[in-house]
Design brief:
The protein is mainly alpha-helical and 251 residues long. The chain has one domain. It is built from 8 helices and no strands.
C-alpha cells in the first residue's frame, strides 16, 4: 500500500469515527447523558497529546531547524505562540459567558472554533509529514482524541440554542477540518524538499495545539488536572504518554 493510499484510508477512518461518536450525541439534543469511558478516553488522549507534542512533533521540528543551522528556537516559539493564542481565545469565551449580557451561543461557537483549529493543524501536519512513523503517531493521537471530542462537541451543540440544522452544520465544520488540513498539508508537501522548514513549522504549530489540549484546555477542568485526580484515569494519561515514548524507540 502506497503512502498516499494509507493516508487516505486513515483520513476516512478519522471522519467515520467523528461522525459515529458525535452525531448520536448531537441528535439527542438537550441530552445530559455521559459515558464512563469518556473520562478515561480524555485522560488517555491527554497523555497521547503530551507525548506526541513533546517527544515527536516538537523534537522533530527543532531538529529540522538545527539541521538548517538556525540558532533561534523557532520551533519552541511557534509552539508557545499557538498555545497562548488558543488560551487567549478560551479566556475571551469564558469572560463573555460570565458577563450578565453574555451570549449563550458563545461557548459552543468557541468550542467549534478551537477544535476546528486543532483539527486543521493536525491534518496539515498529517498531510505534510514525509515520515511514515510521524504519520502513524499523528493518526494515533487523532484517534485517541476524536471520539471524546466529537461526543463532547455534539452534546455541547445539542444543549445550545442553535437549531438542529445550524448545530449540525457547525458540527460538520469540525468534521471536515481534519481532511481539509490533510489536503493543505499534502499540497505543501510538494514544497518541503525545496523548503524543508515548511514541515518543521507546521509540526511546531500542531505541537502547540497538542500541548494545549493535553494540558491547558479547560483550565481547571482539563483532563490532566481534573481527570487525573482519579487513579484509573491518571493511569490512562500515563499510559498514553508511555505509548508515545515507546513509539519513539523506532522513530
Amino acid at each position: 500500500m502506497s503512502d498516499q493510499v494509507l493516508k487516505l484510508v486513515m483520513v476516512a477512518v478519522v471522519v467515520i469515527i467523528s461522525l459515529a461518536t458525535g452525531r448520536p450525541a448531537l441528535m439527542a439534543m438537550r441530552s445530559d447523558r455521559s459515558l464512563p469511558a469518556l473520562g478515561f478516553g480524555e485522560a488517555f488522549a491527554a497523555g497521547i497529546f503530551l507525548g506526541a507534542g513533546l517527544i515527536h512533533m516538537l523534537g522533530d521540528s527543532q531538529s529540522a531547524f538545527d539541521t538548517a543551522q538556525i540558532g533561534y528556537p523557532f520551533a519552541m516559539v511557534i509552539c508557545g505562540s499557538v498555545m497562548l493564542l488558543l488560551l487567549w481565545i478560551e479566556h475571551l469565551a469564558n469572560r463573555g459567558m460570565e458577563s450578565p449580557s453574555g451570549n449563550s451561543r458563545l461557548l459552543p461557537l468557541t468550542a467549534v472554533a478551537m477544535l476546528s483549529i486543532h483539527s486543521l493543524l493536525m491534518g496539515a501536519a498529517f498531510g505534510v509529514s514525509s515520515s511514515v512513523a510521524l504519520t502513524v503517531v499523528i493518526f494515533i493521537a487523532v484517534l485517541a482524541h476524536k471520539g471524546s471530542a466529537s461526543f463532547a462537541l455534539g452534546l455541547e451543540l445539542g444543549r445550545s440554542e442553535f437549531s438542529k440544522r445550524s448545530a449540525w452544520r457547525l458540527f460538520l465544520v469540525f468534521v471536515v477540518m481534519f481532511p481539509f488540513g490533510a489536503l493543505v498539508g499534502q499540497a505543501l508537501s510538494t514544497a518541503s524538499d525545496a523548503h524543508p522548514l515548511v514541515e518543521a513549522s507546521i509540526s511546531a504549530a500542531a505541537a502547540g495545539t497538542f500541548l494545549f489540549f493535553g494540558t491547558l484546555h479547560g483550565l481547571a477542568a482539563s483532563p490532566m488536572i481534573n481527570r487525573c485526580c482519579n487513579q484509573r484515569e491518571f493511569i490512562a494519561a500515563v499510559g498514553g504518554f508511555a505509548v508515545m515514548a515507546v513509539v519513539a524507540i523506532w522513530t
